[in-house]
Design brief:
This protein is α/β, with parallel strands linked by helices. Helix content is 28%, strand content 21%. The chain contains 6 helices and 10 strands.
Length: 229
């Protein structure tokens, strides 16, 4: 619970994955990748109910063996490459009603902790915001990123304010989504159909060593290095 509001946590884990096949069940530091997210959610002080949303019998069986219920099997139309996370979340909310706040925990963020989950939920509540998402520091500042035109000439990817200093020590902070925690008030999420709305969503900041988001074999290896500290 957070401020008297019931919290539902959803772990989405479909069977298909192009970047890293069967990534949700791959071993990572002694347990299946999805096991790290299940353990973090189980250790949370704020989550009232934890469920898995999956179309895959192997993933469902594995999650249940680790103590994460799978009260339904996700429909095929919500399990392909075209399915969106928000559609998966809204489907789960329809199937498991009665909660005020929902938190989406992707199994591809194994280094996120229970403290990150609770911190994001507490940030949402304390700020009086409708949603909160986890972020990490941007690896490259947007003002230092360029694009190429058809002739290969460089142009700033985003306009730089006139007179702004491009020295690294003078650059304003820049954050990127790290995929670890997405939390929102359920009525607002149903209406907006997104976890992120500029001017309304607040951030939960996470350090680089907990911000790994695994989609490829290289990502998996980087996460292992980060986990080793």
């Amino acid at each position: 619970m957070i401020a008297g509001k019931s919290v539902l946590a959803i772990i989405p884990a479909r069977g298909g994955s192009r970047g890293l096949p069967r990534k949700n069940v791959l071993p990572f530091r002694g347990r299946p990748l999805i096991g790290w997210t299940i353990a973090a959610a189980q250790a949370s002080r704020r989550i009232d109910q934890l469920i898995l949303s999956s179309d895959d019998p192997e993933i469902i069986a594995l999650a249940e063996s680790l103590g994460c219920p799978a009260p339904f099997r996700r429909a095929p139309e919500l399990s392909g490459d075209a399915a969106t996370s928000i559609d998966v979340v809204l489907d789960a909310l329809d199937r498991v009603p009665g909660h005020d706040v929902v938190v989406l925990l992707q199994p591809t963020s194994p280094l996120r902790t229970a403290a990150d989950i609770d911190g994001a939920l507490e940030r949402l509540s304390a700020a009086g915001a409708p949603s909160c998402v986890s972020v990490g520091e941007a690896p490259s500042h947007p003002w230092l990123v360029f694009k190429q035109d058809r002739e290969g000439r460089l142009e700033p990817f985003t306009p730089v304010p006139e007179g702004a200093s491009l020295r690294r020590q003078d650059l304003p902070s820049a954050s990127v989504l790290n995929g670890a925690v997405y939390a929102a008030e359920v009525p607002w999420l149903r209406r907006e159909r997104t976890f992120i709305k500029p001017g309304e969503t607040v951030a939960w900041e996470m350090p680089a060593h907990r911000s790994a988001d695994i989609d490829t074999l290289e990502d998996l290896r980087v996460a292992e290095v980060l986990a080793d500290g």
